[in-house]
Each structure stands twice: as structure tokens, then as C-alpha cells.
Design goal:
By secondary structure, the chain is α+β, with helices and mostly antiparallel strands. 32% of the residues lie in helices and 20% in strands. The chain has twelve helices and twelve strands. The strands form three sheets. Strands 4-5-8-6-7 form a five-stranded antiparallel beta sheet. A four-stranded antiparallel beta sheet has the order 9-10-11-12, with helices on both faces. The chain has a three-stranded parallel beta sheet with strand order 1-3-2, covered by helices on one side. The chain binds flavin-adenine dinucleotide. The site of flavin-adenine dinucleotide has 30 residues, from β2, α6, α7, α8 and β8.
Length: 320
């Protein structure tokens, strides 16, 4: 590991100011992703700014009925929070589907969002290599790596907003826009500028998110990244889809909001057939590689099964 300076930030503005002076420096939160990269030599920062003592460790109600999650709320605490479990169960399920208990105890909301893609290649010979975990949507010639965070998939489905403080001031970014598709700059995972600190994530009020699910398919039952995952919330009335939120993990360089499937579902009868058509509409643009073509049918089946599960729950709830 290369030598580096360590500073503990007293407040958010000084954390930002410290990092602004270190072009290769980084914020340190739980360290569960960053420290791996330091050990592997993937990152060689001259300065680490420890942000773990900043006052962003609370989950608070917002005046509009939404919820604010501080950037330093640990993944375990967020998953266990009563409000999150009751009102946004897909978020709790997504967190519990990720990493391990020990890692979740350290990992933070901000760090989870900014974990790097887990590509074993550098170069990039991935297209001619082993494809099983790679992307099928939104890929470029330069990169076919997938975004690793489970939590981010649930947050994208929920229309979460990210608050940041950077050298240019504070801003709010829709989470769906935070992560980038690779294009010609695959090394830039997000649109954040150097030294921009995530301070909080807001969940808007969404009554039907109380009926939501996160489902993850992976090669082992635990401690593995998603081959494909689905975050879904469904609002059904009189057998018709009134509203829906759908996002996919493990298929693209960013958490993939399934806008086309959502549009195909709204106002249609809630049946297996319409769920299937919607999934196919979303996956029509998929460009799988020879070794991951299975992800197209896996994603389709996972979307359909998850929506059917939510429909069954809705029907049970409305039975006299
Ligand atoms: C073995 C293993 C298995 C895993 N499996 C999964 C899995 O199945 N699903 C899953 O989703 N994740 C998985 N993870 C990843 C884990 O969720 C992340 O490592 C963790 O969430 C990162 O959070 P952290 O606080 O430790 O971030 P850190 O490692 O501290 O930071 C990560 C990055 O974010 C930056 N950063 C941190 N906080 C902020 C902030 N507030 N503002 C701006 N930048 C910031 C850091 O500079 C760094 O670049 C796994 C990790 C390991 C080691």
C-alpha cells in the first residue's frame, strides 16, 4: 500500500475543503470498498479524509411525508429501521441481500452508492473474456461492467434524491441520474465532481411502496453480487395496474430504471401476460454477449415473477 495522509474532518465544509487540495484524495467512510482498492493498488490517494464523525447518521421524517437518510447511516441500521421496513420494504430487502452482516455493520449509505464496479479486467479485454457477470443493457465498446450496489437499485426504483456538498456548493441530484453509462469514459462511474460529498438521500412519500419487493438471483445464496436483481412496487386497483416502479440490477453499468416496462404496464390489466409483455419491452434493447445471453430470459422471468408475487399479495389484502 502507498503511504497517504489521514485527516479526520470536523464538519462537512472542512471535509470538502481538505479534499479539494488533494487531486487523488478520497473520502473514507466504512472503508469496506476503498480499503480493498488501496490494498490492491487500484487507488493510490495521497490523502484520506475520514468523514465518519460528521453528523449524517440519522434517519428522519421529512415535512412532505418522505424520509431523509443521512449519508453515514450504516447499511445494517437502515435495513433494520422500522419506518423503512414498513414503508419501503424493498430497500430493507435490497440491503439485506448485499454483502454480509459484518460488512453491512460498517458500510454506509454514501459509500454503498459510490462503490466501484467490480470488474476483474483492465484494458479492456472483457468482451473477449468471461461474460457471466457482465452487462446486457447500456453497454459501450469501452465497457461492459455492471454496477454492484443492491441498495442503489431499490433507491432508483423509489425516485430517491441525493444531496451533496462540493467545492461549487450544495446540489440535489435524482439518484437515477447519479450513475453514468460507460460511453467512452468508463472510468467515471458517477456525475459527481472530485471532492463532492454525499450528505443525505431523500425518499419521497410513495404509499404503494409499502407493497414492494427486492429479488436477487446470484450464484451463491449469500455473499455474492447479483446476476440479475429486480426492485418493484405495484399499485393495483380492480385488476388494473394503477402505478408501478421497476428497476433492475446486475444488467448495466448503472442501476437500471425500467422506464419502458413501467410505461407498458400503467393502465393495463394486471396479468401474467401484460407483465411478460412489459418485461420484453424493457429487454428489447439488450445486447448480450455469448456468455451472458441467459440474463435476458432471467431478467424477464424475474420481473414477471416479482410482479405476480406483488399482485398475489395485493389480492390477499383486498379479500374480505
Ligand atoms: C466481500 C464483499 C461482498 C460484497 N457484496 C455486496 C453485495 O452483494 N451487494 C452490494 O450492494 N454490495 C456488496 N459489497 C460492497 C459493500 O456494500 C460496499 O463495500 C459498501 O457499501 C461501501 O460502503 P463504505 O461506507 O464501506 O464505503 P467506503 O469503502 O468507505 O467508500 C467507497 C467509495 O465511496 C466514497 N465515499 C464514501 N462515503 C462518501 C460520501 N459520503 N460522499 C462521497 N464519497 C463517499 C469513498 O471515497 C470511496 O470512493 C460487498 C463488499 C465486499 C467486500
Amino acid at each position: 500500500m502507498n503511504p497517504f495522509r489521514y485527516e479526520r474532518a470536523a464538519d462537512a465544509p472542512s471535509a470538502v475543503a481538505l479534499l479539494a487540495q488533494a487531486p487523488n484524495g478520497a473520502f473514507l467512510a466504512g472503508g469496506t470498498n476503498l480499503v480493498d482498492h488501496l490494498k490492491l493498488g487500484v487507488r493510490q490517494p495521497e490523502l484520506l479524509v475520514d468523514v465518519t464523525h460528521l453528523p449524517f447518521d440519522r434517519i428522519e421524517p421529512l415535512p412532505d411525508g418522505g424520509v431523509r437518510i443521512g449519508a453515514l447511516v450504516r447499511n445494517s441500521d437502515l435495513a433494520a429501521d422500522r419506518t423503512i421496513r414498513q414503508r419501503y420494504p424493498l430497500l430493507s430487502e435490497a440491503l439485506l441481500a448485499g454483502a454480509s452482516g459484518q460488512l453491512r455493520n460498517l458500510a454506509t449509505t454514501g459509500g454503498n452508492l459510490l462503490q466501484r464496479t467490480r470488474c476483474v479486467y483492465s484494458g479492456c479485454p472483457a468482451r473477449e473474456g468471461y461474460h457471466r457477470e457482465l452487462a446486457i443493457l447500456g453497454t459501450s465498446e469501452a465497457c461492459v461492467a455492471t454496477h454492484p450496489s443492491d441498495m442503489a437499485v431499490a433507491l432508483v426504483a423509489l425516485d430517491a434524491q441525493v444531496h451533496t456538498l462540493g467545492p461549487a456548493g450544495a446540489r440535489t441530484i435524482p439518484l437515477v441520474d447519479l450513475h453514468r453509462l460507460p460511453g467512452k469514459e468508463p472510468q467515471r462511474d458517477t456525475l459527481l465532481e472530485h471532492g463532492e460529498l454525499i450528505t443525505a438521500v431523500d425518499l419521497p412519500p410513495l404509499a404503494f411502496a409499502a407493497r414492494s419487493r427486492y429479488r436477487k438471483v446470484r450464484d451463491r445464496a449469500s455473499y455474492a453480487f447479483a446476476l440479475v436483481s429486480v426492485a418493484a412496487a405495484l399499485d393495483v386497483a380492480d385488476g388494473v395496474v394503477r402505478d408501478v416502479r421497476l428497476a433492475l440490477g446486475g444488467v448495466a453499468h448503472k442501476p437500471w430504471r425500467a422506464w419502458k416496462a413501467e410505461a407498458a404496464l400503467r393502465g393495463t390489466p394486471a396479468t401474467e401476460k401484460t407483465f411478460q409483455r412489459a418485461a420484453e419491452a424493457e429487454l428489447a434493447d439488450a445486447q448480450p454477449l455469448p456468455g451472458n445471453a441467459f440474463k435476458v430470459s432471467l431478467a424477464r422471468n424475474l420481473i414477471v415473477r416479482t410482479l405476480l408475487d406483488l399482485l398475489e399479495t395485493a389480492e390477499e389484502e383486498t379479500q374480505p
